[in-house]
Amino acid sequence: MDAAILSHQIAIDTVSPVASTASVTAFPRSDPTALTSPVKVTETSYASSYWPHISKFVRLALQAELQTATPLHTFSHEELYRSIYWVCWQGFQKQLYADLIALVSETLSAIERQLNGTEAAAAAAATGREGDIGMWLERFSCVVHNHERAMGVMTSVFAYLDRTYVQYERHERLHDILLRFFSSLILEPSEARILFVFRAIVEDPAASPDPDGVTKLVQALYRFDPEYAYLSPRLFQTACDLVPTAGFAELCLKHGQCETRHQIQQLVSVTEHPHLKRPLERETTLHAGAAEAMVMMMVDEGGGGGRGRVDEDGCELKRERL
């Protein structure tokens, strides 16, 4: 939380609401959320003034492409915090939370469609970059890095809602909720593509036009959740300087199982991402039986020839393909 928001939060928590508004004189009267005197929040004012102002900020924070025309600093974070405080203090915290969650879900779903849907495929074809992993990787990196920033700024601005409603009544944290939405609405629908792109980079580092960008992307995913290392244990181990542990073998196993599942889906032409079919088919892939055998070898500590074995610390010794 930045210093301005923190100082205002302390002031709010230590004086009465009436007294806390006495020193507020900087906001223009044209702003619907200006709090120059105690304000009565009604259903009408919430729907017509408070929520539109707050929702505009949330959309902007979650969508990086909008920030070129309207930078985030266009909004006063202290002003937003104050508006959210009044909304919550006057009994609208449940409504605000429900509206916020619905908006986050709607916005992240739209981002995923832009990333993986027919719109993205058409854009790639129009630029002659169909099947170019660099183009998709650049877009995915932008989504990941922006969501990391958005989680920081949103947990700061919504700190009062988080503390008094999300944590106190729902026994959750807003940060964890935003991360869970990222996982279910962005990462999981993109899993097949991520596996394909990361595998290509592991097998041929030159396949990535921006190695430093890949490293930063992997590190950001690891900050989100260390369990994301299953997407490419070898790549995460290198980028994040991971010390092999017993849990590393489980990540390798999950990685192999995910690859097998997506390969089987392709073989039977059942996929949730039709636009991924062509580039994945052009890549030489293992058939289902070979992939299953690969997974078994990963956890066979006594496997013949050493290929695919793991050591006593759970670290993969040798494997042709992740």
Automatic annotation (TrEMBL):
- Biological process (GO), any one: ubiquitin-dependent protein catabolic process
Molecular function via GO: protein kinase binding; ubiquitin protein ligase binding
Q: Where is this region: Disordered?
A: 302-322
Identify the InterPro entries for this entry: CACUL1 (IPR042652), Cullin_N (IPR001373), Cullin_repeat-like_dom_sf (IPR016159)
Source superkingdom = Eukaryota
UniProt lists compositionally biased (Basic and acidic residues) regions at 308-322
The chain's coiled-coil residues are: none
**Pfam annotation, one family:** Cullin
| Residue ranges of every copy of the Cullin N-terminal domain listed in the record | 70-194
Family statement drawn from the similarity comment of this UniProt entry: Belongs to the cullin family.
What is the protein named? Cullin N-terminal domain-containing protein
Q: Which organism is it from?
A: Jimgerdemannia flammicorona
**What lineage is on file?**
Eukaryota, Fungi, Fungi incertae sedis, Mucoromycota, Mucoromycotina
